[in-house]
């Protein structure tokens, strides 16, 4: 591949060089302003910001004026269609105004960047900068210690506190940082090496884009970085009159957080930005909203946020009835016994395999070895045996033999097992033996799902009367529901015991299960495994099992960040995922050259047979490096390995620090120590990400920081990130990875070729192999995993795209209701849609009586035409007539409601004892009641019209929110149930899209009918029921979590879980019992829809059958 890339570069050029070349003119122009700006006084430099803002304002003045006039016109227009046209025109004008702003920003970019650079220079060269005090200076001086007022002047010091650490400003932008700033402004990803000052680079586009006043967000991976960077860089912006804040400094839904979003530049963590968006879409008044429009965001460590966190949806959930009811504790002893029995079996299979292979019987030995592997693949004795010469090849050869023809012979291997572990897919499947063992003290069908189709057919054959038949079916469905929940609990417990290890995938802290991020080694606070798996692990570890919750709002980070008008990112490791960034986010990756050349020595991987040999070599190397006065950073992949290495170093008497998920709070302190002579630091993969390890001159002379990787990670990015800790700003350093054939990556994906080479070379225990070919072989294995992971994230996004389309419709309707300005239009559309639905449903059946009934039921009016007209007129004509009648009736009703309510409002308002600001008015449609809160003064001034508007708003919000919660629950159930479609050779995603559309259509129709019904039937308030509305902030019992999808085939695993528990005779219907069809055999296929048949070769028919529209006809 590298040869092909070299040839392509020779013909079409290097993309990175082309990108940089296109930016160079802007950098050259920026430098032309430097001399002129340096000649300006401090006050004159500050006035440049006002000048830039004026340019932007002047350029878009016409559009802004047109928008304002159209908004005023829309407010005074009663015609619904005309109002809709005006709103559409406003949206188009706002888009045009945004494009004008972007054009002006590009024009002023060179000078604006030069202003930021000059400001940084002045802060570095002056301990105090004295300027004429502005109102903003006076306001900031009250809270910022680095600004002091002396008469009419303000003194800005160049020393301030950044997240608890005193810093003195000492940075000026390099030319390569200017390039990075341009890339970020263009809405691309700027890939800059560690130590190149990404946070300083971000100041350039942040300042430039903040000039529009539309708000700019800088997104970080953790709250420490958000708080540190916001306070570290703030004076640079505040000096020019801009406001800076960090949302992580304030509580959710607070006034302080709202103010943080109103700042020109807002820092915060990815999770909090996403959760605030969801909370805003659960708000009940405009005053509760905190976010503005999503204008421009720069994502720091963009690969971590948009790649690693992309498969974890943000979820706001609440309690459900009986959420603490489960069977985890009841079923746990059964699973413990089952796992122990399987472990004994696995050890027996392994012992037998060793014996047979030693005797030369590789056929039977391979068979037993495969059984041992499918029983417990993580068995340490098995892993050790597989590293011996020729054993891995024997296992793969045997596995391939039994996997032929869609696992046709695999049942022979599995029949002796209690359950089968598919480690690559993270799946566990119970066998018949397992079900039999679990059912030995209960009914044999206790853990077997009934076959619904067969059982319903049996009930119908019994010729029962209607009531008895309905009762029998209801009992069957109840039995199915109970058993499916039981089997689901069982499977999740099995996964918890056999696939998830303490101190590897999770740790226990404060009597809670905390997931460890596989990429960074950090604790992922608030994140839970999805679908009951977390509860299963809690049961396994004997900690409190948290109650089940119901989703109230959810979004993936992928869809959240795609809402921004412009998105950019920066990181040191994005090139390996450039394809995914472009495909999902349309983000181009631009490699920025380093300020100084990299002098770090990256050595080829050292490959050992066993983990023991590898770790002994690591300890030996680390001891020598430390003794030579070089600091050493040891990168590990789990808490377990970091603690093992720590014990080994203690035995050697080597002092060291450990940074892993358990010591996460000491991160900043440990990283600061990591660059000192002889200091050894053990850290999980990307620990310290976002912080630089700075070296003393003594360390540089000794050879710099030594990076020792104890294992290759699944992702090349993570290895590059670990390497990037050394060699910052031209510092010396080295990196060395140690690999063994027992490592997870090598064991699952990469060891075939490497093992063959080692076998041919006849390497003995303790001997090592090191060659560039071996390193490339490992990188190919990493690429396989990366492709797998990309598939998972893309699949998750495809499912969430369906939800996102629905989410946008619902949230848009909520926003219109909250702000009120477009609510009248929405209500008119609801009326029309409901009229259309009633007409279409009844016209097709020619049912005039039901038509009349539904008009009375939903609109409280009688039919405006006779039965004869109903029969003669078309659906469109009928809908138009009803809509006109309904609209006239509603207009008259709202006017009457306002008229009748006004005397009551007047009485309260004009009462001399009145001190009310807002009042509660109860409305009822005779079935449900709703308390409407309205502003008393506005209701009085509008003569009751404000009360009617608030009534419309409140009822729309209440009904939409309730329906959306129920719909989310149905969508969750649908997502699980569609996975069974694979048995019918259909794409679950396609079925999901079709069914989701039907569910959403049904939900919208239901919402329309319910809202309209309440609006038309809502009673006027009684005088004695009006009372003051006291503002008490509602405390909702909500939980914010991130659902973790721990593997690549979560959805198909659920499908297997359902399939595996079907009775044997049902399962067999899926297995082929006819002769195998070869690709060139002639077959007959039949169209499901019209019954036509065609004869063709199977290779042509295969795709048609897979589509689900055709089936094979067996003769």
Describe this structure in words.
The longest helix has 48 residues, at 772-819. This protein is of the alpha/beta class and 1115 residues long. Helix 14 (328-358) packs antiparallel against helix 15 (362-375), helix 32 (823-845) packs antiparallel against helix 33 and helix 32 packs antiparallel against helix 35. It is built from 41 helices and 33 strands. 39% of the residues are buried. The strands form nine sheets. The protein has a seven-stranded parallel β-sheet, sandwiched between helices. Strands 20, 21, 22, 23, 24, 25 and 26 form a seven-stranded parallel β-sheet that branches. It has a four-stranded mixed β-sheet with strand order 16-30-11-17, sandwiched between helices. The chain is globular, with a radius of gyration of 34 Å.
Q: What's the quick description here?
A:
With 1115 residues, the chain is α/β, with parallel strands linked by helices. The chain has 41 helices and 33 strands.
């Amino acid at each position: 591949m590298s040869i092909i890339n070299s040839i392509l570069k020779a013909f079409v050029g290097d993309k990175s060089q082309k990108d940089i070349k296109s930016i160079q003119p802007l950098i050259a122009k920026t430098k032309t302003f430097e001399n002129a700006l340096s000649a300006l006084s401090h006050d004159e430099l500050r006035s440049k910001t006002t000048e830039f803002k004026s340019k932007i304002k002047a350029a878009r003045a016409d559009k802004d004026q047109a928008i304002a006039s159209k908004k005023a016109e829309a407010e005074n227009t009663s015609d619904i269609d005309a109002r809709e046209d005006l709103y559409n025109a406003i949206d188009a004008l706002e888009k045009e105004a945004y494009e004008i702003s972007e054009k002006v920003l590009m024009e002023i970019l060179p000078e604006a960047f030069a202003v930021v650079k000059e400001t940084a220079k002045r802060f570095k060269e002056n301990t105090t900068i004295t300027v004429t005090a502005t109102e903003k200076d006076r306001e900031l001086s009250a809270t910022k210690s680095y600004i002091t007022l002396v008469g009419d002047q303000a003194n800005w010091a160049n020393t301030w506190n950044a997240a608890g650490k005193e810093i003195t400003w000492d940075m000026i932008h390099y030319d390569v940082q200017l390039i990075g700033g341009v890339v970020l402004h263009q809405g691309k990803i700027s890939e800059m090496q560690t130590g190149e000052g990404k946070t300083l680079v971000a100041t350039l586009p942040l300042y430039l884009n903040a000039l529009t006043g539309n708000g700019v967000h800088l997104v970080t991976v953790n709250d420490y970085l958000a708080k540190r960077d916001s306070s570290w860089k703030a004076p640079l912006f505040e000096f020019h009159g801009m406001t800076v804040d960090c949302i992580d400094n304030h509580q959710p839904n607070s006034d302080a957080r709202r103010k943080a979003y109103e700042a020109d530049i807002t820092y915060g963590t990815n999770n909090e930005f996403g959760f605030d968006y969801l909370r805003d879409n659960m708000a009940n008044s405009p005053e509760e909203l905190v976010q503005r429009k999503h204008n421009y965001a720069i994502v720091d460590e963009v690969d971590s946020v948009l790649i690693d966190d992309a498969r974890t949806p943000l979820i706001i959930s609440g309690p459900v009835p009986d959420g603490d009811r489960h069977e985890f504790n009841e079923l746990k002893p059964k699973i413990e016994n089952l796992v122990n029995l399987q472990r004994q079996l696995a050890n027996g299979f392994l012992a037998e395999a060793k014996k047979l292979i030693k005797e030369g019987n590789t056929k039977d030995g391979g068979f037993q070895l495969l059984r041992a592997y499918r029983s417990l693949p993580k068995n340490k004795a098995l892993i050790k045996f597989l590293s011996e010469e020729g054993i891995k090849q024997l296992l793969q050869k045997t596995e391939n033999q039994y996997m032929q023809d869609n696992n046709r012979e695999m049942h022979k291997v599995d029949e002796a097992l209690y359950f089968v572990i598919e480690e690559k897919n993270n799946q566990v499947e119970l066998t018949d033996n397992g079900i039999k063992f679990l059912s030995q003290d209960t009914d044999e069908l206790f853990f077997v799902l009934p076959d619904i189709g067969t059982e319903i057919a049996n009930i119908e054959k019994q010729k029962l009367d209607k009531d008895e038949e309905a009762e029998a079916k209801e009992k069957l469905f109840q039995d199915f529901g109970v058993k499916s929940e039981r089997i689901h609990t069982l499977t999740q417990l099995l996964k918890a015991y056999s696939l998830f290890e303490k101190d590897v995938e999770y740790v226990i802290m404060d009597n809670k299960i905390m997931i460890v991020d596989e990429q960074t080694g950090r604790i992922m606070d608030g994140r839970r495994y999805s679908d009951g798996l977390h509860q299963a692990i809690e049961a396994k570890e004997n900690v409190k099992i948290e109650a089940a919750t119901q989703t109230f709002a959810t979004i993936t980070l992928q869809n959240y960040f795609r809402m921004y008008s412009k998105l950019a990112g920066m990181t040191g490791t994005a090139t390996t995922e450039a394809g995914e960034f472009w495909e999902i986010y349309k983000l181009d990756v631009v490699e920025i050259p380093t300020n100084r050349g990299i002098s770090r020595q990256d050595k080829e991987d050292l490959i050992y047979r066993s983990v023991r040999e590898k770790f002994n070599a690591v300890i030996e190397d680390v001891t020598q490096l430390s003794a030579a006065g070089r600091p050493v950073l040891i990168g590990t992949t789990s808490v377990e390995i970091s603690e093992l290495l720590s014990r080994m170093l203690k035995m050697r008497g080597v002092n060291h620090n450990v940074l892993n998920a358990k010591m996460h709070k000491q991160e900043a302190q440990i990283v600061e120590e990591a660059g000192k002579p002889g200091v050894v630091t053990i850290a999980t993969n990307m620990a310290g990400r976002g912080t630089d390890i700075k070296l003393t001159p003594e360390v540089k002379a000794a050879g710099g920081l030594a990076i020792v990787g104890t294992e290759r990670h699944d992702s090349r990015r993570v290895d590059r990130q670990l390497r990037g800790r050394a060699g910052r700003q031209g510092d010396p350093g080295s990196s060395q990875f140690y690999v063994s054939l027992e490592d997870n990556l090598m064991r699952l994906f990469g060891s075939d070729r490497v093992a063959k080479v080692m076998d041919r070379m006849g390497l003995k225990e303790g001997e090592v192999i090191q060659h560039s070919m071996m390193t490339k072989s490992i990188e190919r294995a990493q690429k396989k995993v990366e492709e797998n992971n990309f598939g998972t994230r893309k699949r998750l996004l495809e499912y969430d795209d369906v939800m996102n389309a629905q989410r946008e419709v619902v949230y848009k309707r909520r926003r219109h209701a909250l702000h009120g300005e477009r609510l009248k239009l929405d209500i008119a559309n609801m009326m029309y849609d409901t009229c259309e639905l009633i007409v279409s449903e009844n016209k097709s059946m020619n049912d005039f009586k039901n038509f009349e009934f539904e008009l009375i039921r939903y609109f409280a009016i009688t039919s405006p035409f006779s039965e004869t007209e109903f029969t003669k007129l078309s659906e469109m004509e009928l809908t138009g007539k009803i809509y006109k009648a309904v609209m006239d009736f509603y207009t008259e009703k709202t006017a009457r409601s306002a008229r009748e309510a006004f005397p009551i409002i007047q009485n309260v308002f004009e009462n001399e004892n009145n001190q009310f600001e807002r009042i509660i008015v109860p409305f009822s449609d005779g079935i449900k009641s709703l308390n409407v809160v309205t502003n008393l003064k506005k209701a009085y001034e509008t003569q009751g019209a404000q009360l009617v508007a608030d009534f419309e708003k409140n009822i729309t919000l209440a009904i939409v929110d309730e329906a959306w919660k129920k719909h989310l629950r149905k969508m969750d159930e649908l997502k699980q149930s569609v996975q069974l479609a694979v048995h019918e050779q259909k794409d679950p995603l396609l079925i999901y899209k079709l069914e989701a559309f039907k569910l959403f259509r049904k939900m919208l129709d239901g919402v329309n009918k319910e809202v309209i019904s309440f609006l038309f039937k809502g009673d006027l308030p009684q005088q004695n029921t009006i009372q003051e509305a006291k503002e008490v902030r509602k405390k909702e019992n909500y939980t914010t979590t991130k659902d973790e999808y721990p593997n690549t085939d979560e959805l198909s695993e659920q499908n297997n879980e359902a399939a595996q528990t079907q009775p044997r005779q049902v399962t067999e219907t899926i297995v082929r019992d006819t002769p195998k069809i070869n690709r060139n055999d002639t077959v007959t296929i039949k169209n499901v829809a019209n019954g036509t048949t065609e004869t063709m070769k199977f290779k042509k028919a295969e795709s048609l059958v897979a589509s689900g529209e055709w089936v094979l006809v067996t003769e």
